[in-house]
Amino acid sequence: EAMKIYVCVKHVPDSAANIIIKERNKFDESVKYVINPYDEIAVEEALRVRERDGDSEVIAVTLGKQGAINTLRIALAMGANRGILIETNERPDSMVTARALKAAIEQDGRPDIIFTGKESIDSEGMQTMYRLANALGMPAANNVVTFSVTGGQVTVECEIEAGARQVVEMGLPCLVGAGKGLNNPRYIKIPDVMKAKRKHVNQVDLDSLDFDKPSGSLEILELQPALEKRQCHILKGQPEEVVQKLVKLIREEGKVF
Amino acid sequence: MKKIGILVEVKDGEIKTANYGVITAAHGDDHELYAFVLDGRGDAYKDELQEYGVQKVVDIYEEDGEIPWNPEIWARAVIHTMKHFVINTLFGLTSAQGRDLLPRIASSLDSPLVMDCINVNVADHTVRKSQFSGKVLATIRLSGHSYIYGIRPNTVEPEPAPCEAEVIPYNVSLSTGKMLIKEIRQPESAGIDLTEAEVIISGGRAMARAENFRVLHECAEVIGAAVGASRAAVDSGYAPHDMQVGQTGKTVSPKLYIACGISGSIQHFAGMKTSGVIVAINTDPDAPIFEKCDYGIVDDLYEIVPLLTRQLKQALGN
Ligand SMILES: Cc1cc2nc3c(=O)[nH]c(=O)nc-3n(C[C@H](O)[C@H](O)[C@H](O)COP(=O)(O)OP(=O)(O)OC[C@H]3O[C@@H](n4cnc5c(N)ncnc54)[C@H](O)[C@@H]3O)c2cc1C
Ligand SMILES: Nc1ncnc2c1ncn2[C@@H]1O[C@H](COP(=O)(O)O)[C@@H](O)[C@H]1O
Predict the structure, then answer these.
(1) Among partner residues A163, A164, A218, which is closest to B112 by beta-carbon distance?
(2) Could you report the average pLDDT of every consecutive run of 10 residues in chain B (318 residues)?
(3) CA pair distance B125, B143, nearest whole angstrom
(4) B270 Cβ partners below 8 Å, 6+ apart?
(5) Mean pLDDT of chain B
(6) Packing angle between helix A128-136 and helix B96-109, nearest 10 degrees?
(7) Ligand 1 centroid to B263 CA: how many Å?
(8) C-alpha distances out from residue A35 to A142, A144, B197, Å
(9) Residue B150 Cβ contacting ligand 1 at under 6 Å
(10) Are B181 and A167 in contact (CB under 8 A)?
(11) How far is CA A58 from CA A7, A50, A109, A170, B130, in A?
(12) Which of A123, A133, B131, B289 has a C-alpha 20 to 30 A away from that of B311?
């Protein structure tokens, strides 16, 4: 039967962007932004579920500045039905973000499945999905690499250590955090971009959402460029010699054996 | 005394070595360290844990014995334990298991959490961690009624701080959760986990085919290393995606990282730049990796790596 599938997508600086720090704890935001790569995988999986069952609705949700609408547009161009932008000029921590996502989703409808990414590549928080699921009283599985849903039952495989996988079963509603191997997201074609422009985006102000203040917070005190302090020494000589030098060096400096 | 809980990770009946750095990170003159062990064998780990300064080993179990693995239920067991012993600060590893437990614990407690910390100051609740794919080092302050820290494996050097520990059995009763762990599927060849390995040897596009990874595996076996791959190697089908190191793969921090036939893209570095010593083996003297590593060898990996394997065997006397 028809499901409501929400996908949380974050607008993040491109991994190749040069991050220039300013005012001690901020950065120059005039860089290229992209949809968080794991969230793109999450959108793809949501679309595949809809394509299998026909009537489900896929709603992309983002919290961010006005510019985050571009990430919603990517999700819409990929095929999401509509979007929700929770607008704010701040960069809230994950405790606030999860509460806001919950409030906006609940205001919109009753989720059957929520897809997220396994982590965001800018703040690398690794927690928003668990907080969101907990707030909604849903089970959550993260770093999911295979997904299926039949008869109200979700079965996923989560990648755990050293290539092992845990097979998890959960009922609906539930939250699924997409990992890298889950799928290969589709490419967007020009007509899709045009179509996406006509899809509906509901813009809500973060301050207009009703939720309890978290009992804690994270505050970024300072950002510093991670300096590359390494000075490369090229080891020269015949292969035998070079390897001899290397073995000696890794013994002394690597302290691994 | 400030009580600090440490979630200890155990594998196949042994404490993972990465835990000792976590204990060292939590250590402090006026700290009382409580190690939480969930496999019902707390006694067995006492000697190793007290060597690093753990004063209390809390052996958490259920009436029927060991608590079967289920992240939801384990998270609840840890929360019960923290409440029982009135502990508001928890340390753990940002490993696969830690990633699935610490955020669950933090969300239930509505507690701030920072994962992948490379440094923690317990007194003023500040941490340092990398952000933006490793390009930025952030200093973050946690505020709240409790604090949870996930430490990036191998980033804190373990320091012995011997003391005499006490083992405290703690019986929890837990209801069932909303999710069911049906099965754990092991890969065909169970290797060492990349995120916790002390040595990693990785191959890039230059591996040219899956079978050639054998050259790296042979070397890895000698020194107990894990084998990684670049995205180019994964996308070309030479290695499974769970071996990928980088921004869209694993973030690793071994003491020694050996990159073979890898050019050194920003995205690859995002996943391994906090390694101790980085060694590059590449035929191209102008490869960008030579600007960002400690030692470089400009030569064919298929010549160098087998030599390395042989010499390492000799050096280790086998
Ligand atoms: C959004 C995004 C995310 C990405 N995420 C990742 C990621 O997580 N991980 C990742 O690795 N990449 C990632 N990439 C891809 C990254 O940009 C590079 O394309 C990739 O890392 C290149 O892999 P490589 O170094 O193996 O291949 P190449 O760049 O092709 O380098 C191969 C190297 O091998 C050398 N070589 C050839 N033959 C030999 C030989 N016989 N012996 C020794 N050396 C030899 C060559 O000189 C060359 O330097 C990402 C890219 C994007 C856009
Ligand atoms: N501002 C945001 N807007 C929408 N989704 C978000 C936002 N922040 C985090 N998420 C979701 O939560 C996941 C984990 O984020 P994080 O906890 O930052 O690693 C991401 O992959 C997103 O799916």
Answers:
(1) A218
(2) 96 92 95 95 94 97 90 97 98 96 98 97 96 93 98 92 97 91 83 87 97 96 94 95 90 94 94 92 96 95 96 84
(3) 7
(4) A15, B133, B134, B135, B246, B247, B251
(5) 94
(6) 50
(7) 5
(8) 19, 19, 31
(9) no
(10) yes
(11) 7, 7, 12, 20, 33
(12) B289
Chain A residue whose CA is closest to B11: A161
Strand pairing of A57-64 and A4-8? parallel
Cα B288 from chain centroid (whole Å)? 27
CA-to-CA separations, B68 to A65, A132, A200, B72, B184, in angstroms, rounded: 44, 25, 46, 11, 12
B112, B198, B241 ranked by CB distance to A256: nearest = B198
State the Cα–Cα distance between residues B1 and B148, nearest whole angstrom: 18
Residue type, B5: G
pLDDT per position as a tens digit, A144-198: 999 999 989 999 999 998 778 999 999 999 999 999 889 999 999 999 999 999 9
Q: Is the CB of B232 under 6 A from ligand 1?
A: yes
The sign one gets for the Cα dihedral A194, A200, A94, A155 is negative
**Whether residue A252 has pLDDT greater than 60:** yes
Q: Which amino acid is at B66?
A: E
How far is it, in rounded angstroms, from Cα A6 to Cα A132?
A: 12
Q: Which residues of B touch A122 (CB under 8 A)?
A: 131-132
B230 and chain A: CB distance < 8 Å anywhere? no
Q: Give the span between the Cα atoms of B94 and B14, in whole angstroms.
A: 18
**In this structure, what are the phi and psi dihedrals at residue A240, rounded to the nearest 5 degrees?**
-55, -45
Could you tell me how many residues make up chain B?
Answer: 318
Q: Is the CB of A56 under 6 A from ligand 2?
A: no
Is residue B104 within a helix (H) or strand (E), and if so which, with residue range? helix B96-109
Q: Which residue has the tokens 């190191």?
A: B245
Please name the member of A15, A95, A122 whose beta carbon is closest to the beta carbon of B266: A15
> How confident is the model over A16-65, as pLDDT tens digits?
899 999 999 999 999 999 999 999 999 999 999 999 988 899 999 999 99
Cβ contacts of B148 on chain A, cutoff 8 Å = none
CA distance A141 to chain B (A): 8
**Residue in A closest to B141 by C-alpha:** A219
If DSSP states are collapsed to H, E and C, what string results for B192-247? CCHHHCCEEEEECHHHCCHHHHHHHHHHHHHHCCEEEECHHHHHCCCCCHHHEECC
Q: What is the DSSP string of B154-182?
A: TSS---------EEEEEE------SEEEE
Complex ipTM value: 0.89
CA distance A7 to A12: 16
Q: How many CB pairs under 8 A join A and B?
A: 263
pTM above 0.90, yes or no: no
**Nearest chain A Cα distance for residue B1, angstroms:** 23
